[in-house]
Structure formats: C-alpha cells, structure tokens
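Thread title: Can someone regenerate the structure for this chain?

I was given the following input by a collaborator and told the matching structure tokens would be attached. They weren't. Posting the sequence so someone can regenerate them.
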Amino acid sequence: MKRTAQIPLLILTGLGLLHTALFTDLYLRYVKEGLRPLLIVSGVLLLLLGLAHAAFDRDTGGKEDHDHAHGHDHSTAPRIAWLLFLPALSLLLYAPPALGAYTAAHAGRETVKQQKGFAALPATSPLPMTLTDFTTRVQQDKERAIRGRTVEMTGFVTPGQGGWDLTRIIFTCCAADAQTVKIRMYGTPAPPANTWLAVTGTWHTQGALGTKSAAAALDVHATRPIAQPVNAFTDDLPLTPTR
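Best answer:
Regenerated them for you:
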C-alpha cells in the first residue's frame, strides 16, 4: 500500500466514525452510548491526521520520486493492508449487523449478581421488568414476591433446544465484552429468530422460588412484536424508549 493510499484510508475511517457517531444510532450496535464522545474525537483525529499527511506529501513530493529512482522506497506496506479499506468503507456504506440470536445461542447465561434485600414491587399489572431483575427476583427473593405476578419483559427471540428464549445482550463497554441474559419461554411456539417481542406472563413453576434452583422461565400469556429499542444492548428500563 502506497503512502498515497494510506491518506484516503485515514480520511475514510475518520469520516466513517463521524458519520456513525454523529448522524446515526448505528454505533450503539458496537459500543455503549457513553463512548460516543470518544468515537467523535477519534474520527476528528483520524481525519486531521489524513489531511496533515496529504499536506506533508504535497510539500515533499519530490523526495518520494527520488527514493523510487534510487531503489529505496520506504512508502509501501504489505498488500494485505488494502483489506483495511473494507471496514473503513463499511462505516459509510454498509454497517455490519448487530449481535443477535446466533451469538446468544452460542453463549452461556449470565450469572446474576447476589443482591441483598429487595424493594416492594409496585401493584402495576403487568409489571415491567428487565430480564436481569426477573431472574434475580426468581432466584434470590426470599419473600417470593414474584409468585403469581404478571410481568412484562422485552427482548429478542433466540431459538434453542426444545424451546426458545427471550434474550438480551448486554454491553459492559462494547461488543467484545458482551454478556447474555435469557429467560426460557413456555406455552407458545418459537417466533422467528431475532424477532423483538414484548412478552407478558407469569413465572414458570420449576424449582424452589427464591433459591438458585428456581428456573428463569416464564409461562407466556401474550406476545407483541415491537421495533428494536434504542437501548437494545442494555437491560434497562424503559424497555422501549422513543427515538
């Protein structure tokens, strides 16, 4: 790769980062919302670096011709470096797909953290809950407050052996450290993989409620297709925020 090709690579990558972080929500497929300022700063730096390279090469163009003439060209990189143009272009033309059912199907279930004490549940019915909160209540709440309560959760469909799971993939920082939380669904056939749903139901009786033997599972009463929420890679309320 010539130095003259390295310049457009820097500029393309910078423009791609700026386009993704400033004008779309696509960056949320790969990193948490809090990293947006860093993406913008990175895009600006890469763009300025590319422009600075271009200005420097214009001022020293004669030196490169001299190096070529004397057989000691130091302006090239391995040919495989041309592949770097693919991710740079993808930021502008085609965003890679978000993590989904395939990733979740090959991941284990997140181990929920031990929680000391639980606040009283509101009387709302159905009760909006995150998948993590539901799992924690089912397996750790000694008061068994979730018994008989109709809850509502949102996530995407992950087909599995003998059934399907309502799933959320959670970023701690970015896609590289993603964890998966799943709730097994009973009483309804599996919808297509990656379908986003709002599901209402009650805890599926299996194991001793309030202990680790309790299944993180739901007897489904109703499902409703929804658009993928903006906070798709968190497990936070509100479940379906407006754009």
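The first strand starts at residue 127 and ends at 128.
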